[in-house]
Structure formats: C-alpha cells, structure tokens
C-alpha cells in the first residue's frame, strides 16, 4: 500500500487500484505521504524503506525523461 494523503485523522492509501482509509494512530510515527507500508507477521504496519526508495527513484527517472 502507498500512502496517498492524510485527511483529518486518516491516511488515504492506494492498494492495487483502490483506496483504503487507515487511522493515523495505526501507522508508524515516521510514515509520510508517498511511503510504501506493509504489514509485518504480527499484523502491525511498517514503512518498507527499500520499496519506498525504489518507487521514488522510478518516479524521479520518469519525470526526468518527461521533462528532457
């Protein structure tokens, strides 16, 4: 899931083409817009730093191609 935006006390997350609302209190404190979040074995959410970095790099590369 990718955190799309925050609205009030909820995070609006994109999950395979649909949107899911998650209470901000269920997110890790360091979570921010654009982060990829996953569930660990215990069902707790965590920020997948590696996937977030890969996603942000892909977006940056696409933008660089677009604006050349």
Describe this structure in words.
The structure is a single chain. This protein has 68 residues and is an alpha+beta fold. It has one domain. Helices cover 26% and strands 35% of the residues. It has a three-stranded antiparallel beta sheet with strand order 1-2-3, with no helix packed on it. A two-stranded antiparallel ribbon has the order 4-5. A hairpin with a 2-residue loop joins strand 1 (2-7) and strand 2 (10-15). 12% of the residues are buried. The mean pLDDT is 95.
Summarize the structure.
With 68 residues, the protein is of the alpha+beta class.
Notable traits:
68 residues, three-stranded antiparallel sheet
List the helices and strands and how they pair.
Blueprint: E1 2-7, E2 10-15, E3 18-23, E4 37-39, E5 45-47, H1 49-66
Antiparallel strand pairs: 1-2, 2-3, 4-5
If strands are numbered along the chain, what order do they take across the biggest sheet?
1-2-3
Helix content: 25-40%
Number of strands: 5
Mean pLDDT: 95
Q: How many individual helices?
A: 1
Task: Give the radius of gyration.
Answer: 13 Å
Distance linking N and C termini: 30 Å
Order of helical and strand elements? EEEEEH
Relative strand content? 35-45%
- Report the major sheet: 3 strands, antiparallel
Q: Structural class, from secondary structure content?
A: alpha+beta
Shape: globular
What number of domains? 1
> What are the low-pLDDT stretches, counting only 5+ consecutive residues below 50?
none
